[in-house]
Amino acid sequence: MAAPRRTAAAQGAPRGAGSATAKQGRTMLGAEAVIASLEAEGVDTVFGYPGGQAIKLYDALYDSDQITHILARHEQGAVHMADGYARATGRPGVVMVTSGPGATNTVTGIATAYMDSVPLVIITGQVGRGVIGTDSFQESDIVGITMPVVKHSYLLQSTDELTATMREAFHIAVTGRPGPVLIDVPSDLAGESMVFAYPDEVHLPSYKPTYRGNAKQIRAACRLLEEAEQPLLYVGGGVISSEATDELVALMDRMQVPAVVTLMGKGGVPASHPLNLGPVGMHGAKYSNMAMTEADLIIAAGARFSDRVTGRLSEFAPNAKIVHIDIDPAEIGKIRDANVPIVGDLKGVLAGMLATLDKDGAAPRDDQWVADIAAWRARYPFYHPNMAVSETVDEIVPELVIAELGRQLDPASSVVTTEVGQHQMWAHQFLPREAPRTFLSSGGLGTMGFGFPAAIGAAVARPDATVVCIAGDGSFQMNSQEMATAAINHIPVKVMIMDNRCLGMVHQWQKLFYDKRYSETLLDAVPDFVKLADAYGWEGERVDDPAEVAAAIGRMLAAKGPYLLDVAISREQSVYPMVAPGAALNNIMGAIDVAVGAVRTDVPAAPGSPRTLAGAASAATSPCAKIDAQFGGRWEVDPQDTGARLGQDGSTVDVAPEDWKTLFRADGGGKEARR
């Protein structure tokens, strides 16, 4: 389902009836005016939880024949549901809760949306104006508490400003860089009479987002692209917010520019596109990270240079000039200086670049760059059947589970959400997504408990789609109470738990960097998820046999109602490749190298693996076994073997370690031969 463009909101017009609403000019209570404002904005769904200071708002909502209310079982769940609704549609998600603990329970969800630039409008009940600041029962300064994690906030002081505030809140939430806006409504104000007059216009002199990119800067960016021999697009969530997929793909095709994609940008470039290199960064592909490191031009398209992408910043993209396109001027230059900064809406800026390139008659400068990356991609795949020792002991391989789910899902009619952890990274690596707004994940805040309620919100927004949440057993338990919400509202969401009975990602870090000191990351076999599903009226099953995985996924997807599939995986499974925290982007452990037998390189050997059995009991590997696959080498299993690696003194081939071009280019990397 295509999401509407933000043009109407950017021009100051509401998405709904606005001033043409049938309630215009009526005398009503403040609470009724809040609900009438939502109707005027075209809101069809509100997620929330009532309480004493919101009771007037909920009483007014009772009479609305336009708005469906989804009653969550926890306010945090309600915000994540609204977030999933917003991500799946591009329309603002709406939340309504009470004061005090009801309001403070929304903070994690608000911060999640803020970090990922998701438009929300959160309406909180508040104690009466006369007792604000007196520590009245269930009073909290929610405006002050959330100030760092909202785009804007309001504490209503008069019914005279109510409708203008509602109009402004929706306008701010969806325009510029989207984000959450909070409106705090004192309960006495909600009970006052007023004449409803909803404005179509918004007058905010200090808020003027820049949509049109500077023409001079666009021309400068095009000059750099025309001159680049090794250009790369670095694609973030801005491509989805701006709905710029068509323009981005056109630029890739026209100039043969490969693209790496962040977690937030997944789906912004079709997975099937041959120039889409997929994930980059801490758990990105080795070939993607190599491309980022070797590029001579990086065009950052709606991306913010997160530390999870850059690795050690001082060594990030050392050879590259930077073009940074972002609608938020605060992001440009915040992490990495840009040679050409462009503030503007990504869709329009890319269209401007395409027009300039057409005018110039520009063509790709060098097709060898794409050939180099293709060679890396063939040599360092995410997965190879020969590398999984666990396959010989009848363990379920999580990468294959995710891939199987991807095979059975129709990319045109499915939405996938994730919780946070190892399963999230496996989903990023192995689940193909062909369209924007079909992969929803907490990127910036990394919020455990996000994925399941977000899936409920997405399923409400997209009743035509199959919605699946990929979860971990730890993350799922953060908001598992929302199983009641799905069951009672007949929302047929599916949950596939990658169940390793541990907090997988922290457990992996403890294994690799903390001498296997598993402090508080091992979870007991509680609860029995199948029994939990039954208790909530869901269908559910557990699978622990690799041969049964495909059929179990099929049953889950075929179910008419909500379904939980508990997939048993080993605690020893790790997400690779991996860049260690604080390491350079090209310092990659656990990448598969097919040139040396399709094994993972530079990782501790698993107990009982052939590498361990052939080596010392400590599973240590010799320095010569630590292959730098950028220049080749041979895999050694004997810790006592100190033979030279390819490129070292004593080896039979003379290759400088830093000169990857001699390995991957038939002409030895000579520039003259390539021009």
Automatic annotation (TrEMBL):
Annotated ranges, domain Thiamine pyrophosphate enzyme central: 218-351
Signal peptide: none
Domain Thiamine pyrophosphate enzyme TPP-binding: 420-567
Region of interest called Disordered, as start-end residue ranges on this chain: 1-24
EC id: 2.2.1.6
Composition bias, Low complexity: 1-20
Named cofactor requirement(s): Mg(2+); thiamine diphosphate
Pathway entry: Amino-acid biosynthesis; L-isoleucine biosynthesis; L-isoleucine from 2-oxobutanoate: step 1/4; Amino-acid biosynthesis; L-valine biosynthesis; L-valine from pyruvate: step 1/4
Molecular function per GO: acetolactate synthase activity
Recorded coiled-coil stretches: none
Cofactor annotation comment: Binds 1 Mg(2+) ion per subunit. Binds 1 thiamine pyrophosphate per subunit.
Keywords from the UniProt entry: Amino-acid biosynthesis, Branched-chain amino acid biosynthesis, Magnesium, Metal-binding, Thiamine pyrophosphate, Transferase
InterPro entries named in the record: Acetolactate_synth_lsu, AHAS_TPP, DHS-like_NAD/FAD-binding_dom, THDP-binding, Thiamin_PyroP_enz_cen_dom, Thiamin_PyroP_enz_TPP-bd_dom, TPP-bd_CS, TPP_enz
Record-linked Pfam families: TPP_enzyme_C (PF02775), TPP_enzyme_M (PF00205), TPP_enzyme_N (PF02776)
Domain Thiamine pyrophosphate enzyme N-terminal TPP-binding per the UniProt entry, residue ranges: 29-143
NCBIfam families: acolac_lg
The name this protein goes by in its record: Acetolactate synthase
Gene assigned in the entry: ilvB
